[in-house]
From TrEMBL:
<comment type="function">
    <text>Involved in the retrieval of endoplasmic reticulum membrane proteins from the early Golgi compartment.</text>
</comment>
<dbReference type="GO" id="GO:0005783">
    <property type="term" value="C:endoplasmic reticulum"/>
</dbReference>
<feature type="transmembrane region" description="Helical">
    <location>
        <begin position="39"/>
        <end position="57"/>
    </location>
</feature>
<keyword id="KW-0472">Membrane</keyword>
<comment type="similarity">
    <text>Belongs to the RER1 family.</text>
</comment>
<dbReference type="GO" id="GO:0006890">
    <property type="term" value="P:retrograde vesicle-mediated transport, Golgi to endoplasmic reticulum"/>
</dbReference>
<dbReference type="GO" id="GO:0000139">
    <property type="term" value="C:Golgi membrane"/>
</dbReference>
<dbReference type="Pfam" id="PF03248">
    <property type="entry name" value="Rer1"/>
</dbReference>
<dbReference type="InterPro" id="IPR004932">
    <property type="entry name" value="Rer1"/>
</dbReference>
<keyword id="KW-1133">Transmembrane helix</keyword>
<keyword id="KW-0812">Transmembrane</keyword>
<feature type="transmembrane region" description="Helical">
    <location>
        <begin position="63"/>
        <end position="82"/>
    </location>
</feature>
<feature type="transmembrane region" description="Helical">
    <location>
        <begin position="153"/>
        <end position="170"/>
    </location>
</feature>
<protein>
    <recommendedName>
        <fullName>Protein RER1</fullName>
    </recommendedName>
</protein>
<dbReference type="GO" id="GO:0006621">
    <property type="term" value="P:protein retention in ER lumen"/>
</dbReference>
Amino acid sequence: MMNSSDSEPSSGPLKPITDQYYKLARQYQILLDRITPFVLYRWLGSAGLVLVFLLRIVVAQGWYIVCYAHAIYLLNLLLAFLQPRFDPSLQEDLLADEIEGGGEDMGGLPSARDDEFRPFVRRLPEWQFWLSSTRATLIALFCSFSTVFDVPVYWPILVMYFMVLFVLTMRRQIQHMIKYKYVPFDLGRKTRYGNGQR
């Protein structure tokens, strides 16, 4: 029997297993909630994990495919972190279609005439970026202990291909940032608006 306010089963042969699962899930969530405010320490811990993983790859002289897949995934996360939630180029196309169709103005990006403050909203928030990259690093580290994932490849080609891919995608992202005039980072001092200016 399932309680409407609780998703845990109340009886059955799997009850001890599900109880233990939900207990571990709650403890995991409590741990995540406690470390949320410590941004610098979270990222330093993740950088340490990446360093351990890279040392494992260099010392073991293998698992280059795992390392390559991990790097591609981290690049994908970085691009999602740098992109706005609502792509300005898509909104621009929608506005052009709406104007051609004679419809009403849908709003969109602030223009030079529009002084309204609109904060940069990321496609991938910082917390999700950190959590996904840390999980991926842990998975890649554990994969490097299994010989199933140690596929023999010529690693310099993978390194060169990743470098080319990184340069091309970051160049395209920077051109997009310049074209639509947005900066995905908070640089400089914080400005207070309203009556509480100091």
